[in-house]
Amino acid sequence: MNCPICKKPAEMSKDNPFRPFCSERCRMIDLGTWASGEYRVAGGKVEDKEHPDDRKKPRLLH
Ligand SMILES: [Zn+2]
User: Does the domain formed by 1-62 have CATH 3.30.50?
Assistant: First the structure.
C-alpha cells in the first residue's frame, strides 16, 4: 500500500507506527498540522534568519 499523502510505498507492518502513512511527516500533514501552524514554528526560524539578512540589504540607498 502506498502512502496516501506522498504516494510513496509505505510499510504497513507493526514496525511502522505511522501507518497507513510512510512517515510521521505525512501523518502530520494528514492531521492538518501543517495548516494548524504547528510546523510554522520550524518555518519561523527560517523566516527569522532571513529577516536580518533582508535588513542588511542596502535598501536605504534606494
Ligand atoms: Zn508519505
Answer: yes
